[in-house]
Design a protein that fits this description.
three-stranded antiparallel β-sheet, GrpE_head, alpha+beta, elongated, GrpE_CC, coiled coil, Protein GrpE, cytoplasm
């Protein structure tokens, strides 16, 4: 190949020079297009990041709430799992109290029986108290519909209306939650 042929080939493969104004405008247009495109991509990516971040925070909050609810459910199951058993045992306490009320304390021959029933009753009530079962005996207190069940209302001018005059059956709470309301007689205005 001759030198002439070589220079022709080289000239054909070289980019042809353009007008200086056209070359500068083309470079600026592509630079603007690239910057605008990059800014649009950046905005899209920033929005996607924020969306993913919010979803992640929500998922973490949901997981934490579920964990807290599960812990509360377990705690309630531990606390109030005894509620059915307590309900079954309360009539035994009531019967011991009725037995003590029906025995004549003046009869000396029954003193050993009275003492045995009193000790049994005391140990039973103490065992309930160890398991956070509290007695609700509201005689003389204001009527509370959350803890008491009124079986009758009696006019009494000596006390304020809605005062508990008599308690037929004691109530009980387990960890502050009502297991059985106290059955009471309430005063009313004459």
């Amino acid at each position: 190949m001759s030198t002439q042929d070589y220079s022709d080939i080289q000239h054909a493969t070289e980019p042809q020079p353009q007008d200086a104004g056209e070359a500068q405008a083309g470079a600026e247009g592509s630079a603007e297009l690239s910057i605008e495109g990059l800014q649009a991509q950046l905005a899209t990516l920033a929005a996607a990041y924020e969306s993913a971040r919010e979803q992640s925070l929500r998922a973490q909050a949901d997981a934490q709430n579920a964990r807290r609810r599960a812990e509360q459910d377990v705690e309630k199951a531990h606390k109030f799992g005894l509620e059915k058993m307590v309900n079954d045992l309360l009539p035994v306490v009531d019967n011991l109290e009725r037995a003590l009320a029906s025995i004549d304390p003046a009869n000396e021959s029954l003193s050993a029986i009275v003492e045995g029933i009193q000790l049994t009753h005391k140990s039973f009530v103490d065992a309930l108290a160890r398991h956070q079962v509290a007695v609700v005996n509201p005689e003389g207190e204001p009527f509370d519909p959350n803890l008491h069940q009124a079986v009758s209302a009696v006019p009494n001018p000596d006390v304020e209306p809605n005062t508990v005059l008599n308690c037929f059956q004691k109530g009980y709470t387990l960890y502050g939650r009502l297991v059985r309301p106290a059955m009471v007689v309430v005063s009313k205005a004459p």
